[in-house]
């Protein structure tokens, strides 16, 4: 099976490494002026892993498209629309596209699969690959479970069968809306967890997890998904990796923001917060945790006051 991984950042590079590891013929594409691509081209490695010689590295998108039977896209969620417009200029031939990324478009509230369908006109099956796991753990041989979901059942089953291994066990997703929203929203809850760490309120993470899952479940239901999905691998099942791990970019961003320290890594939850606020208004769902993160990050409200107020509720109120 020939797979082209489009995007050579931390996660894209790992996907290429993983798919090569399980015997796929892998091409890894990146922008020629990207620091990630330039380092991989020069050294065949980044801070987390080394690419084997069997992985073909290219900055030529047309070449990457021609090489593939399946495309896996792993870029910033907010860059997907521009990238999709470039990608469809090439002959995609009805090949499956797997979105291995977590986010919601900030300006529209569109899910990522919706964006791709707007450009492919449903000629290419779209799948998503979500769930817990950090590159640092995977390359040490520590296994985890993840989810592949798609409207196309045949493609979903093909991908689960082709991509599963002892390192990553894939489950069949049954709720594309819920899995996409849940996966994106867990990054916002991760930022909130980092903020709690930053103000030494880490003991409140239990309440955060309880309320966060319920909050996102309500939104998923209002959008037409299955609220139970929030309790699966896409969201609650990813909390350990996102709310507690030292490797979590979103948790770290929240902590550094509170401490007034710069954080240069991509934290998708920042843009997702704005998107969720938009969706909450559109579907008439109250999202107090998302609003709290937004108030602190985007409106400069006092973190301790906002976070304290978030968890001081009437004893009669439900999570």
Percent of sequence in beta strands: 5-15%
What distance separates the N and C termini? 46 Å
Overall residue-averaged pLDDT value: 95
Which spans of ≥5 residues are poorly predicted at pLDDT below 50?
none
Jot down its keywords.
319 residues, alpha/beta, eight-stranded mixed sheet, 12% strand
Description:
The radius of gyration is 19 Å and the shape is globular. Helix 1 links the parallel strand 1 and strand 2. Helices cover 48% and strands 12% of the residues. The mean pLDDT is 95. With 319 residues, it is α/β, with parallel strands linked by helices. Strands 3-2-1-4-5-6-7-8 form an eight-stranded mixed β-sheet, sandwiched between helices. Helix 8 (176-198) packs antiparallel against helix 9, helix 8 runs parallel beside helix 11 (249-259) and helix 8 (176-198) crosses helix 12 (269-283).
Describe the secondary-structure layout.
Elements: E1 2-6, H1 10-21, E2 25-29, H2 35-43, E3 56-58, H3 61-67, E4 70-73, H4 80-87, E5 97-99, H5 112-120, E6 126-130, H6 135-138, E7 144-150, H7 153-163, E8 168-172, H8 176-198, H9 205-222, H10 239-244, H11 249-259, H12 269-283, H13 288-297, H14 303-311
Parallel strand pairs: 1-2, 1-4, 2-3, 4-5, 5-6, 7-8
Antiparallel strand pairs: 6-7
Helix pairs in contact: 4-5, 8-9, 8-11, 8-12, 8-13, 12-13, 13-14
């Amino acid at each position: 099976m020939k797979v082209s991984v489009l995007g050579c950042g931390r996660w894209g590079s790992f996907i290429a490494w993983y798919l090569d590891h399980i015997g796929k013929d892998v091409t890894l594409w990146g922008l020629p002026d990207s620091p990630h691509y330039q380092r991989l081209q020069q050294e065949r490695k980044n801070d987390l892993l080394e690419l084997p010689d069997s992985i073909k590295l290219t900055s030529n998108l047309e070449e990457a498209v021609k090489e593939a039977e399946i495309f896996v896209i792993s870029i910033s969620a907010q860059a997907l629309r521009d990238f999709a417009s470039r990608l469809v200029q090439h002959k995609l031939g009805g090949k499956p596209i797997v979105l291995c990324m977590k986010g919601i478009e900030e300006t529209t509230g569109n899910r990522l699969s919706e964006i791709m369908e707007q450009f492919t006109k449903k000629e290419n099956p779209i799948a998503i690959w979500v769930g817990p796991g950090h590159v640092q753990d995977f390359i040490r041989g520590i296994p985890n479970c993840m989810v592949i979901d798609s409207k196309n059942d045949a493609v979903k089953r093909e991908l689960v069968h082709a991509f599963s291994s002892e390192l990553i066990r894939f489950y069949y997703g049954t709720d594309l809306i819920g899995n996409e929203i849940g996966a994106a929203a867990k990054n916002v809850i991760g930022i909130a967890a980092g903020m709690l760490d930053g103000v030494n309120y880490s003991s409140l993470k239990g309440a955060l997890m309880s309320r966060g899952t319920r909050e996102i479940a309500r939104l998923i239901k209002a959008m037409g998904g299955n609220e139970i999905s929030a309790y699966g691998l896409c969201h609650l099942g990813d909390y350990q990796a996102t709310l507690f791990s030292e490797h979590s970019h979103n948790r770290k961003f929240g902590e550094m923001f509170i401490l007034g320290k710069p954080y240069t890594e991509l934290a998708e939850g920042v843009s997702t917060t704005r998107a969720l606020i938009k969706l909450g208004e559109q579907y008439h769902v109250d999202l107090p945790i998302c609003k709290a993160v937004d108030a602190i990050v985007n409106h400069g409200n006092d973190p301790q006051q906002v976070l304290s107020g978030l968890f001081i509720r009437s004893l009669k109120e439900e999570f």
